[in-house]
Amino acid sequence: MSTLQNFTFEELSVGQRATTTRTVTEQDVLLFAAVSGDVNPVHLDEEFAAGTQFKGRIAHGMYTGGLVSAALAMELPGPGTVYIGQDFRFERPVRIGDTLTVELTVEELLPEKKFVKIRTVVLNQAGKPVLSGMATVMAPAQKLSIPRPPLPRVTV
Q1: Which one, of 83, 81, 91, 77, lies nearest residue 121 by Cα?
Q2: Which domains, and CATH codes, for the chain?
């Protein structure tokens, strides 16, 4: 089992970076629809989606946003991070089978509240941005090094 480590406010520096990668699966899209209640046919119905501007099914935008949230919570600053705010711009559709890389870059440190502004970019396998934005987080107050819990097994 791997170990998760975090960065406290004092350990962060402008320009510090982290990345994480995940491939979007059919099950991811179905589970996101089930959990969020977003059953828009552009995500779930291939025949319907084929007639849209996307010419096929696309993943939920907030699924990609969720990958950003996970990267902040697990990578930079890591466990103990509190999400304060986020602005997103969805640049391109994400499809089942796409491999997405979340890139995080510390842009600004705000010492009065120990807030951190982090540039968030998600790239597809072609290196093209599918999401860009800026997150504001509260960095963890204490240093942590904890075992990575296993993901629960869920099926649809």
Answers
A1: 91
A2: 9-141 (3.10.129.10)
Q: Are 35 and 62 in contact (CB under 8 A)?
A: no
pTM of the model as a whole: 0.94
d(CA 36, CA 133): 22
Please enumerate in sequence order all residues whose Cβ is within 8 A of that of 12, keeping only pairs 6 or more positions apart, or say none. 77, 106, 109, 116, 139
**Token couple for 55:** 């010419």
Q: How far, in Å, CA of 17 to CA of 3, rounded?
A: 19
Q: How far apart are CA 127 and CA 100, in angstroms?
A: 9
Q: Where are the alpha helices (DSSP H) in 1-156?
A: 26-36, 41-44, 46-50, 61-74
Q: Could you read off the pLDDT tens digit of each residue along the chain, which spans 156 residues?
A: 789 999 999 999 999 999 999 999 999 999 999 999 999 999 999 999 999 999 999 999 999 999 999 999 999 999 999 999 999 999 999 999 999 999 999 999 999 999 999 999 999 999 999 999 999 999 999 999 999 988 888 877
- Name beta bridge partners: 89: 132
